[in-house]
Design goal:
mainly alpha, 5 helices
């Protein structure tokens, strides 16, 4: 199996760039949230050894509105504890 993917951290992207990207993606897809991860459900399942780590990375690439939902339900903590 391939090693887990390394994604660009949100902390390395400027707030201005994130805001610009957010406006573009929400306008483009017509929704209030988006995900910039390269992962899809099939690609997550293709690497079962790193599934949790990759799922957390995928979740981390959702827009701020979606992040709020994940945080309220402590989704990442639940995935890590499973």
């Amino acid at each position: 199996m391939s090693p887990p993917r390394t994604l660009c951290s949100r902390s390395t992207t400027s707030a201005r760039t994130r805001a610009s990207t957010s406006r573009f993606l929400t306008k483009k897809n017509g929704r209030k949230f988006y995900n910039t991860s390269t992962f899809t459900l099939p690609t997550l399942l293709d690497d079962p050894k790193h599934f949790r780590q990759n799922l957390v990375a995928c979740i981390g690439e959702f827009s701020d509105d979606a992040q709020d939902v994940f945080e309220r339900f402590k989704f990442v903590d639940r995935v890590a504890a499973a």
